[in-house]
Amino acid sequence: MSALVLSPSAALEPPCRAKPLLARLDPRSRVLAALAFALLVVCLRSLPAAIAALMPAILLALLAGLQPGPTLRRLAALEGFMILTLLSLPFTMGGPALFSWGDWHWGLEGTRRAVLILTKGSAIALSVLALLGTLELTELGHALARLRVPPRFVALFVLSARYVDVLRAEYARLRLAMRARGFCPRASLHCWRSLGHLLGMLVVSSLERAERVHAAMRLRGFNGHLHLLDEHRASGLDWGFAAALAVTGALLAVLDLA
Amino acid sequence: MTPLPLFQLHDVHFAYEAARPVLKGADFMLHAGEKVALCGANGAGKTTLFHLMVGLVLPSQGKLSAFGAECRREADFHAVRARTGLLFQDSDDQLFCPTVVEDVAFGPLNQGCSRPQARALATEALDLVGLSGFEDRVTHKLSGGQKRLVALATILAMKPQVLLLDEPTNGLDRDARTRLLRVLDGLPQTLMVISHDDDALSALTRRRVTLENGLLSG
Question: What pTM was computed for the model?
Answer without folding.
Answer: 0.75
